[in-house]
Design brief:
Blueprint: E1 14-17, H1 25-44, E2 53-61, E3 69-76, H2 77-82, H3 88-95, E4 102-111, E5 116-122, E6 133-134, E7 136-139, H4 150-165, E8 174-181, E9 185-193, E10 210-217, H5 218-221, H6 230-246
Parallel strand pairs: 1-3, 4-9
Antiparallel strand pairs: 2-3, 2-4, 4-5, 4-7, 5-6, 5-10, 8-9
Length: 247
């Protein structure tokens, strides 16, 4: 698949890219100190961090009868990880509301022909936790894809599938499901229909992000007690909503 040809995906949002609000000096100093400490800690566990540039959600505007408009800006990976060091309410109080940066991610809800949801067990999460579940996916990296339209977000999803699941996705199997927004991050969930059953899951050889891939029946997944990262936990609700729409 040419991961640049995703024009079959309907456009659910118009996109605007604008400059992000400036950050104050106290925020920058505290963020940089936290970043240096995390990089050192990660190195002791074999986790490398790259302070790349990510897209952040600035706003979503809904108008009656019109396609909603998403406004995106830019932030650093250090900004993303800084949110892990203190509560969001504290960041707002100390630095101002503009300093709570809602980073964007893409996640693939991969489904087999016998209706199993596929996910992986991560070697280390962003928080340096071992053994947590996660979807194929990642940050919406400006270093990797320049987002000018919604189709570029689909390209990023296809790129993550190619990198992490290590196979070339077919464009007709990828569809957009939902944009889920929380207080500190926003996830673009996509559905990818795998061309084989869960019994052949061993065919997929994930990259070093994951210890291994596994699966659960769709009707069990939404109620699963498997603990995962934040994208994975919110994804359970997304799957539940998908099931309810079918009934």
């Amino acid at each position: 698949m040419d991961i640049l040809s995703l024009s079959h995906i309907p456009v659910p949002y118009h996109l605007i890219i604008k400059e992000s609000p400036p950050t104050n000096m106290k925020y920058q100093a505290d963020r940089n100190k936290a970043w240096e400490e995390l990089v050192k800690k990660g190195a002791t566990l074999g986790k490398e961090y790259h302070n790349g540039i990510l897209y952040r959600l600035l706003s979503v505007e809904n108008r009656d009868g019109a396609i909603p408009t998403i406004t995106l800006g830019l932030m650093s990976y250090a900004d993303r990880l800084f949110k892990k060091t203190k509560p969001i309410s504290q960041i707002k109080a100390e630095y101002g509301e503009d300093h709570v940066m809602v980073h964007c991610v893409v996640d693939a809800i991969m489904v087999t022909t016998d209706n199993h949801i596929v996910y992986g067990i991560k070697r280390l999460t962003t928080n340096l936790e071992k053994g947590k579940a996660g979807f194929i996916g990642g940050n919406l990296n400006a270093d990797e894809v320049e987002v000018k339209s919604f189709h570029h977000i689909g390209e990023m999803m296809a790129k993550e599938i190619q990198e992490e699941a290590q196979f070339t996705p077919e464009q007709q199997r990828l569809t957009f499901v939902k944009l889920a927004i929380t207080e500190s991050w926003a996830a673009f969930y996509f559905l990818y229909r795998l061309p084989f059953s869960s019994h052949l899951l061993h065919q997929l050889k994930p990259n070093t992000e994951f210890e291994y891939l596994t699966s659960q029946p769709v009707n069990e997944f939404a109620l699963s007690r498997v603990k995962g990262n934040s994208d994975f936990e919110l994804g359970k609700q997304v799957v539940k909503e998908m099931m309810e729409k079918k009934t």
